[in-house]
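Consider the following input, taken from an annotated entry for Cyanate lyase C-terminal domain-containing protein (Prymnesium polylepis).
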Amino acid sequence: EMSSLMISVLLLATPLQAALVPRCPTALHRRTAVRMLVDVRDSPDYGARLTEVAARSARLLKAKEAAGLSFDELASSLGLTNTYTAQLFLGQAKLTAATATQLKAVLPAVNDEDLEAMLKHFPMRGFDERILQEPNVYRTYEAITHYGEAIKRLINEQCGDGIMSAIDFYCDVGTTTGKQGEKRVVITFNGKFLPHIEQRAGDNTAPSPRD
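Applying the prediction step yields:
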């Protein structure tokens, strides 16, 4: 059974986090999950960082809107995919020095303090579970989960035992025209294949100690 501490923490957690902790298979797993929630919630700069990123994102999007540029147009100027460009504006990707110079050239309204912060800080990649309440986002999520097992089997057949990387990864969003003249959305995932390894003991450079 969960302790009063666990229950108290779950009341402060997001709905998805609160749902996952009770499903942990053992009491040890549940205590570990709760400690992780406490660590995140008690982090002194966690909320401040999220607020800072949200404010910066709002300023970047305002500059984009004032310039009348689409993400496709910005991506073309920066030499990036349109999805990665949007991620930069949302604080979900790391800005490089070369791209910062290009961004300042195409969007002079972006202030130097924001560019410096984007260069200095590492992104807090992730998402607020409430975003799944947005129909566009949820439908994309639903498509991935619905076709997930089929995609997994196809990857295994074509590449072997492994996964598609989401780090060495490109995502591009575009459109095409269907046979009846309707606009259709095209989302391309291009990720490096990462094979699972056979864990040979002789190749393990850091074996665990034995008492």
